[in-house]
Design a protein that fits this description.
Keywords: DNA-binding, Transcription, Transcription regulation. One of its GO terms (molecular function) is DNA binding. The chain is mainly alpha-helical. The chain contains 6 helices and 2 strands, in the order H-H-H-E-E-H-H-H. A hairpin with a 2-residue loop joins strand 1 and strand 2. Helix 1 crosses helix 3 and helix 2 packs across helix 3. The radius of gyration is 18 Å and the shape is elongated.
């Protein structure tokens, strides 16, 4: 695969996470590779799993000489929420970040957020 044909790391991580979510059971790196139709080398899958583990996105447990991996987040929405919290945690001006985020929301998204904060029982 040439450098130009490489997929971004986020896309590869998303594919690996999707395979783990779909499986619903812990998988080894070769099992994840198989679920991805062998589209990636086993070493690439193992590297992606190790990076996801370092980020806390997947959990792993020893199974003989290998690890079995499970997603540490339940779905795509939880993963996105975790990323958003991470960005907010890194910001020196949390209020400013939140203000700019809210200012960029569509009318529908702002309405959904308002409903979650008022009717959804979330603490504001």
């Amino acid at each position: 695969m040439t450098h130009a044909a490489r997929r971004p790391a986020g896309e590869l991580e998303a594919a690996v996470l999707a395979a783990l979510w779909e499986a619903g059971a812990p998988l080894t790196a070769p099992e994840v590779q198989h679920r991805l139709s062998g589209a990636l080398a086993r070493t690439t899958v193992a590297t992606i799993l190790a990076r996801l583990h370092d980020k806390g996105t997947v959990a792993r447990a020893r199974d003989g000489r290998a690890y079995r991996y499970t997603a540490a987040v339940e779905d795509e929405a939880a993963l996105s929420a975790r990323r958003m919290r991470g960005e907010l945690d890194r910001a020196p001006d949390r209020s400013g970040v939140l203000a700019r985020f809210v200012a960029g929301l569509t009318t529908d998204d702002a309405g959904a957020l308002r409903a979650l904060l008022t009717d959804g029982g979330l603490d504001a």
